[in-house]
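Q: Can I borrow your eye for a moment on a structure tokenisation matter? Would you mind producing a protein record, from residues through to fold? Write it directly below this note and I will take it from there.
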Amino acid sequence: MNLFQKLLNTSILLALAVSMTACVSTVLDVDNKANQPIAANLVSDMKKRKMTPADPILVRIFKDESELEIWKRDRTGRYALLKTFPMCRWSGKLGPKTKEGDRQAPEGFYHVSAGMLNPNSQYYLSFNLGYPNKLESALGYTGDALMVHGACTSAGCYALTDAGVAQIYAIVREAIRSGQSSFQVQAFPFRMTPENMARNRNDPNFDFWTNLKQGYDILEVTGRQPQLSYCGRRYVFDATFEGGNPRNPLASCPPLLSAENDVVAARRVSDERKMEAILASGTVISAHAYSDGGMHPSFRKLLKSRGAEVLAQTASLKNVPVSRPDAALADPHTPGE
């Protein structure tokens, strides 16, 4: 059998496999999914914001809002929001992941390098968050292979549609190819506003979320990526310590040689006062109730109006990318696989 015949047979087998699994991708899409160019509209948006595909990126994830943000560094050296993607599925509840099998999607700060990108993922394309990080490992948290991926199904991961993760993967790929050794992922329970902090004031994870908010505020106020250290069983941001960076995340923090940024400190104090005023007013809205994870409202709306079968057969509806069929898609509160 000559080389051409072997390649032809391989293509036929691959096409059959695709059709048997009801995947809507073509053979060409499957072969080149990890090498798709950045979408033209995103390249245009970068140009308007004085960014290029080569500029470093940062990712933020919000569970309650079911949204993933891509930030990019612009010509001023500051990070700015490029695009917000609706998430199709996440599992568990608000709060950190602590053990294997708890169905929790991680919350915290992570760094993703080139080796953590998976172009051959069973969920179209994916990248590993790097859970557990150094702090989580020291705390004894367990679990692995926690991903951002396609396929709209989740068991501890953050799932987008295939179309959505393809756009994100292309942006990530080009930043890493251009020299960014790793990019930071910040995963939050919700947008860390005074209103949301007040709404969740009685949650057992509130102290942990207050710690996460310190890193959230740095990017919001300064446009800089926060620098991470770990001590005292928590994250410490933008700190310089006497004797160098602490090695044991569980030990008490050594004396600090640097003070908190004045602008960031002012933001923190202002937000704390707003939160206390909201609590004092007695108008706090109760925390969001759910049985398992969530789905972006745009997907829930499409599911209700079009039905699961139509969603399964549609590559995209207007601005909302839709993935292939999945049991979790039929009911956003049903656990994923």
Notes: The two ends are 41 Å apart (CA to CA). Residues 1-30, 309-337 have pLDDT under 50 and may be disordered. Residues 231 and 253 are 5 Å apart (CA to CA).
